[in-house]
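Researcher: Next entry in the queue.
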Amino acid sequence: MIVVALIGMLAAIAVPVMRHQQQRVQNGRFVSDLRIFAQAFETYATRNGKWPADASPGAVPAGMSGELRDGAWTVAQTSIGGQWDWDYKSLSFTACIGIHPVNLPVAQMQEIDRLIDDGNLATGSFRSSGSNYYVYILQP
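Model: Structure for this entry, 140 residues:
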């Protein structure tokens, strides 16, 4: 009985720790992908003197097929859920990378924001832009 109780207590401690670690890995992967994509779009803009045209969610913007990692932009879901979306002059920003729909707790999205900039989803370069839609702003 004591052994069973000890195993139960260890499991009760280990499961939340493992979930938190899994969330940290998920967040880190997302931020890494986001930075890689942002750099690809910025490289494109530098080479061509303009941003790529707007594209549908999950679709590679015209001219970007050689810039984005093979298949990483068009995957069914990002590491946090939702799809990548290139937004050019379609929101209140000139150029941004969108991610939607994302159905994670706000606290986890704030943690991602802390990894990117200020931890506030209403300010900075990573923001909430409506229900389950987040953007990484490259040019306001």
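Model: The two ends are 62 Å apart (CA to CA).
Researcher: Noted, moving on.
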